[in-house]
Write a structure and sequence with these properties.
The complex is a heterodimer of chains A (309) and B (342).
Chain A (H helix, E strand, L loop, with lengths): L3 H24 L16 H10 L5 E4 L4 H6 L4 H8 L23 E4 L6 H10 L7 E6 L7 H11 L4 E7 L2 E2 L2 E2 L8 H7 L3 E5 L1 H4 L2 H16 L5 E6 L21 H9 L1 H7 L3 H24 L10
Parallel strand pairs in A: 1-2, 1-3, 3-4, 4-8, 7-8
Antiparallel strand pairs in A: 5-6
Chain B lengths: L19 E3 H15 L3 E5 L7 H4 L4 H5 L4 E3 L4 H13 L3 E6 L9 H8 L2 H4 L9 E6 L14 H5 L5 E4 L3 H13 L5 E6 L6 E3 L13 E4 L4 E5 L2 H15 L4 E5 L1 E4 L4 H10 L2 E8 L4 H12 L10 E5 L9 H4 L3 H13 L1
Parallel strand pairs in B: 2-3, 2-4, 4-5, 5-7, 6-7, 10-11, 10-13, 13-14
Antiparallel strand pairs in B: 1-8, 6-12, 9-11
Helix pairs in contact in B: 1-8, 4-5, 9-13
The chains are: A alpha/beta (309), B alpha/beta (342).
């Protein structure tokens, strides 16, 4: 990617996701946010590149780990923090929490915390699409352990649906490694059903500019109704499955995972592709935006629940 | 009662009318009207476009409305129900059909974890209007996995509306309300034993929102509440009770969720006696829920006898000896007479 304006926009979105995660990390242990958070640190480039290739009319659905999807898709930052803080102004009215984010104005129809739950919903969304609209789901390798993946791939391929399956393969289902759960990678199932596919190594998936470029063409072909697309991005989860702690240091995953993050941190990778003064400027702007949004959300009225019956 | 097969001919329980048709014809009419009047309506399920056409209720719809709106699917109930959720979130009005309600057990994640909770999880900023039609079957040695009636299990989940239509008029109007007017997910639990029941069905678009039970036969001695085919059995029992000078009031429950027992409470206040007839197991079922809800609304002195329920034994359905397993009108009569004798 060479266009400087496009690059700075991508970098801005990536930074927004990271800065929001850092804000959560800074306050979470005080219990001000009483909701289980599943951070995307280490994986942000994937949602960011995907959303960059989609528009506000396209449907998106995500999982419990969807902060990056919501934010890089243009979701309101104050409504994001307000949701995590249980405020009325939250994107889900304070009734969903961290795992249930929605932004219908920008095509995000919701996120579900049942692992694999988004998979059969995706072809349904795709069947509701009007050309050139498409539907995309962002999910992890854990979701692929569910039989729902095979059912959803089969139907999407059979009907040539405008569906984009994007698997963030961080190789861990909580702490259970890939090798203890699977005989083959998820992409092999997509190949078997005849979907178009992209197998993206971590060198490319951690580079938001390279990934956006890589996804653009295949997504355009989905738009042109050439059939569904399956993308498997290798990635690394920097933190614990849930919460803000470092599970590698706690001995729950091997030390190589931390090394992998040090090498392929999407923020670091992006900075090597950008002018550092420009990066610093965007960093400062985004940090200010995040802090303001958080303080506004904190001051917002708490959501209240009343029995209706 | 001998084995009724899978499709019994029922006596004329509902009387004649201007426009008499069977339960299955009423459903077929509703399907057609839903597709005609709802441009977003989609109809799909296992066997929807085959020659059988979901026991005759979807026959000819694909030819008339095209394969984009009416289509067959793989045997993948989670997918089928997930498609409905996705379509609903995408602005369509899906009707997904599970021709055996036993198969709904494979679809519970999408139905109960997703559809039922969607509006609440997103603070009312999203709606998930979809219809799940499922058919409870039995008879002809259908055995344990093809003879269940799972309505109470679904009614356990807030966010789902659960219909148990008994009359052909309701079978049509509940389906049309669910398909065209409801703003959330509706499970319509049809019963194959009602398939040939005839009744008056008003023409055109008719809508039945969840507005509580209906009195289908007036009486003053004992209140019989029927759920789905249980209402038909209660009607048959009421005939027999009348021969013994016992006037039973028969109430068709119609909706499990939301459950509205006002009319039942009024009836029991008059009769002092209650027997609930269900097509499912007694334990943890709808019959117990109805009795508890009515009991909470009445003073102990208003009861002339302890309430009773007639439902399936607490064992899976055997593949033979069905007449010994399934309770019939005679069992309801016996239960009502026991209640009368207290």
């Amino acid at each position: 990617m060479t266009d400087e304006r496009e690059k700075s926009e991508l970098y801005r979105r990536l930074t927004l996701v990271r800065k929001c995660a850092e804000k959560i990390m800074a306050v979470y242990l005080s219990d001000v946010m009483q909701t289980p958070v599943h951070l995307s640190v280490g994986q942000e480039s994937i949602a960011t590149a995907l959303c960059y290739c989609l528009n506000g009319r396209d449907f998106k659905i995500g999982t419990h780990r969807s902060h990056a999807l919501y934010l890089s898709n243009g979701g309101d930052v104050r409504a994001f923090f307000a949701e995590l803080l249980g405020r009325k102004t939250g994107c889900s009215g304070g009734m969903g929490g961290s795992m249930h984010l929605i932004d219908t104005a920008n095509g995000l129809v919701g996120t579900t915390s049942i692992v694999g739950g988004c998979l059969p919903i995706l072809p349904g969304l795709a069947m509701a699409c009007e050309k050139p609209q498409v539907a995309a789901a962002l999910f992890g390798d854990g979701a692929c352990d569910e039989g729902a993946l095979a059912e959803s791939l089969n139907w999407s391929a059979l009907k040539k649906l405008p569906a984009i399956f994007l698997c963030e393969n961080n190789r861990y289902s909580v702490y259970t490694p890939f090798g203890q759960r699977r005989a083959a990678r998820p992409i092999e199932l997509a190949k078997a059903f005849g979907l178009a596919w992209l197998d993206v190594p971590i060198e490319q998936s951690s580079d938001v500019f390279a990934l956006a470029e890589l996804l653009a063409g295949p997504i355009e072909r989905v738009r042109q109704r050439e059939g569904p697309l399956f993308v498997e991005c290798q990635t690394v989860r920097a933190l614990d499955h849930s919460g803000v702690r470092d599970d590698v240091s706690a001995g729950l995953r091997p030390a190589e995972e931390k090394q992998l993050f040090e090498t392929y941190d999407p923020m670091k990778v992006a900075r090597t592709r950008m002018n550092s003064a420009q990066c610093d400027q965007i960093d400062a702007q985004v940090a200010q935006q995040v802090e303001l949004a958080y303080q506004q959300a904190l001051a917002d009225e708490p959501a209240t629940w009343e029995a209706k019956l | 009662m001998s084995n009724w097969g899978t499709n019994p001919k029922l006596p004329p329980l509902l009387g004649g009318g201007q426009r008499s048709m069977t339960y299955s014809q009423a459903i077929a009419e509703a399907m057609q009207l839903a597709l005609e009047h709802g441009p977003g309506v989609r109809v799909f399920g296992e066997g929807v476009t085959d020659k059988g056409g979901t026991y005759g209720t979807t026959r000819g719809l694909e030819e008339r409305f095209g394969p984009r709106r009416v289509f067959d699917v793989p045997v993948a109930e989670g997918l089928i129900t997930g498609l409905a959720v996705g379509m609903a979130l995408g602005g369509l009005r899906p009707i997904a059909i599970h021709p055996r309600n036993d198969f709904v057990l494979l679809a519970l994640d999408q139905l109960c974890n997703h559809a039922a909770k969607w509006a609440t999880m997103f603070g009312g900023k999203s709606r998930c209007p979809l219809v799940i039609r499922s058919v409870s079957c039995r008879g002809w040695g259908s055995a344990a996995q093809h003879s269940q009636a799972l309505h109470a299990m679904l009614a356990q989940f807030p966010g789902l509306t659960v219909a148990v239509p008994f009359t052909p008029a309701d079978a049509k109007a509940m389906l049309l309300w669910a398909a065209l007017e409801s703003d959330g997910p509706v499970a319509i639990m049809e019963h194959k034993y009602l398939w040939n029941l005839s009744g008056d069905v008003p023409a055109g678009l008719t809508f039945a929102p969840p507005d509580g039970p209906a009195i289908v036969r007036a009486g003053c001695d004992v209140t019989l509440v029927g759920i789905s085919f249980g209402a038909a059995q209660a009607m048959m029992a009421a005939e027999k009770l009348a021969e013994q000078s016992v006037q039973a009031e028969v109430i068709d429950l119609r909706w499990l969720r939301p459950l509205n027992v006002r009319k039942i409470v009024e009836s029991v206040r008059k009769t002092g006696r209650l027997v609930v007839v269900d097509t499912a197991h007694a334990s943890f079922g709808a019959s117990g829920e109805v009795i508890a809800s009515v009991a909470q609304a009445l003073r102990p002195a208003e009861w002339k006898a302890a309430p009773a329920r007639v439902a399936l034994p607490d064992e899976p359905t055997p593949g033979s000896n069905e007449d010994r397993y399934f309770p019939g009108a005679d069992d309801i009569v016996a239960s009502a007479l026991r209640v009368m004798s207290e």
